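=== Structure Prediction Worksheet ===
Name of assembly: unnamed complex
Input type: mixed (protein and possibly other molecules)
Chain count: three
Listed entries:
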Amino acid sequence: MQEIYNLIPFVLISAGILVSLIFEMYAKNSKRIIAWFSVFIFLAAGFHSLVNVDNAQLFFNSMLQVGGNINIFIFLFNFAAALVVLMAMDYSSKYGNNFGEFYILLQSSVLGMMLMAGAKDLFVIFLGLEIMSVSFYALAGLNRMRLKANEASLKYFLLGSFATGFIVYGIALIFGSTNTTSIPQIVDKFGELTHNLLFMAGILMFLIGFSFKMAAFPFHMWVPDVYEGSATTVAGFFSTAGKTAAFSAVIITLGSVFMHGNANIFEPYLVVLAVTSMLYGSIVAIAQNNIKRMLAYSSIAHAGYLMIGLASGNYEGIAGIIFYLAAYTFMNLGAFGVVALIEGKDETNLTFESYTGLSKKQPFLAAMLAICMFSLAGIPPFAGFFGKYYIFIAAIKSDLTWLAIVGVISSVISIYFYLRVVVIMYFNETEIDLTVQKSNYGLLAVVISVILVIIIGIAPGSLIDLISSFLK
Amino acid sequence: MLTQYIPIFIVLSIAIIFAVVTVSASKIFGPQRPNKEKLSTYESGMKPVGTTRERMSIKYYLVAMLFIIFDIEVVFVYPWAVNFKSMYAEQGISVFFSMLVFLIVLELGYLYVYKKGGFKWD
Amino acid sequence: MSILEIILFTLGKVLVLLTLILLSVSYLVYFERRISAWIQNRLGPNRVGWQGVLQPFADIFKLLLKEDIVPDKANKKIHTLAPIIALFVAFSTYAVIPFGPTVTLFGYSVPLVVADINIGILYVLALSSIGVYAMTLAGWSSGSKYSLLGGIRSSAQMISYEVSMGFSVGGVLLLSQSLRPTEIVLAQSGWMWNAFIQPIGFITFLVASFAETNRLPFDLPEAEPELVGGFHTEYSSMKFAGFFLAEYANMIIASALIVTLYLGGWQLPLIDTFGLPSGIVITLQILGFVLKMGMLLFFFIWIRWTLPRFRYDQLMSLGWKVMFPLSLINLIWVAVLIMVFNI
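=== Predicted Assembly ===
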């Protein structure tokens, strides 16, 4: 019975997809029902995974791990998805993707992410990645009437399948050189395999493929257009849960390599990606006038910070990445939530001009967005600061002080464009009127995210203790 | 082991030779007197209009995609079907229900396509 | 047997079978014309030879001596390739169909099947899938609108019915526990014909075979009143004859396959009770196989001249909304039968 109990998150989401399909087919008011139903199953799966931490167990011929350190990821995916559903309830009818399928695709992408996080076999990673990505491609272009959404979907599909191709080639080379796809077995042999050129080429291709999904610098081309074209809620989901899923897959592969005391031979690759992503994202974001594009470039920069944690390749680095991902998920979802609330019909109200003097017109929303921006910029009392702090500490511990310094410089650059939003909202005046559609659920999601950002910022110790207990 | 495939190889090569010889036979025996009218596309005696390289109904693509999904389902059913009797004797009714669950999941998808009008042709 | 002996025996069997199939294809055309004439109260071809029995040869010679026209707008290579694929598929599927039991010949035990392979059914299904290409490519490469419509229609039709065909075969595999056609035949000894055990599967497979061979009421790819000749509008001489031969050869293969899968193959019930010598038993069994095939072929022709053609939406909804669920029900029905009655 314990087995079934441990598998509950997976079973809940899989059964949820099927039940939602039946709702979509037969229920009259299917959208509302499915939305609340998916909030329910996301929360149930998320909290189950928080409660059930100690029972790490392997399933399906040791191909899937449930419980233990991966549960923090499962919680993040499910909670982020629940917040996105709350945001989307009113936004979807405004944007025009108010289909029951929206929630079904969200559920199936969460299932894929959970498979990626729990994978103990390279093929399960691939399976999860495909379930997630295919749902994402469809989510990006769910409103077929919008030209930009079509463009976003097609771009994401083409570049995403290109990246998947890299990953599959990588897996093939790894399998060719190790005779196994099981991650623990590969990790056991890792020391002797580092001299095998085929194996190293495979690992490199695997990493390149995931760099696409993380939106790191040379592989970032899809990010701005996809975020701009797809619905704001969906873009928020891509940038938080999607990035977390890609990092979770890399952490369960590379992380277990680091934990076994192997040398971090990927350091040069990861360092180059980290530096270029941080600087590129921060500098190009300055030039943006569309807030969604600005957030897209900021997401590239954040991928860079997270890469520092991978490059440092120690226990603190992994813990720091998980902390950062948790903080980033909430602050970014909060920011996208506010953007979704302010966005009008037909992609209006997305430029900075629309945010001029927001503190007078919508003081509460302005305050929420300001907190998210402070946190994203990494200003002390909020979650983003401690995320960066832990990651830079990890870098210094593994003698990468210069990388931490580059990270700090990049953060300073990024303060400019994050605080520009705050300045525009609070210190500029405008005559233009802004009508904001009321949405209690969207507001609720934003408030929850902001409260979490503040809590994580005030009491970072409790979260890092929780992560440490997970990582054991 | 592979000797049982020798006949297949022979049959396939004879079939290819037969096909090529048949198709090229009239190049050898038939007359060759082409002219412009003869080589134009047949359109009931009228002058041909337009090209054939145009867009066609999305329905055909939909059918092709559905075919791939359900034909793969068939491929999954075959190994189960071949081993069903012996596995049923060993493991009992769970063999039947595992396939039933697989079929129900896929048939929910089928039902969804049906309800959404994926099989409508008008 | 050594490899050389295998090759010699195979060559022998292939030559005999190929000649027989070619002859029966020619005479199937003749019989179709005579039977249709009989059904419609006409005379049919009766001039060439006694009662027109030499008519097929006259047709072949006429087509052989015609000019081979490839239209300007056609894609020449693919236009030539398409009939080759059609013929290739039609004249290689027979390899796995058993037409008799294992016999002892010159001291060797020879199974009366060209290739006794354990993936026989997959081989048939794979080749029939390749057959779709022949029509699609023929339609696409001709550069004519009639051809294109015919080709697209035929590919959509054939893949639609292939799914239910595949599921129906699943029911047969449940009982035979093997993909080897000889074992499928042996599993139907006595009166245990699959047609009686799983009538739904038999009917769905029969209907799907009609669709796969593009026979009326499923001959939309070449619906004369609307598409002239469908995918072979722009074909002439032996290329046209190639499609024609392939269509009739496919009919023969389809009926042989139905006999193998559902009507007990070469098995005749109760034949062992008469105590006949084995030579006569084997001859009777082969004759029984041919007789079952002949009856099915007559059924094919009979249906063609009795039923009108489907409309395209009717065809697709029959394939997806009726045949597909029925073949699934059949699969579950057979599994339940096995569990309940232990057959």
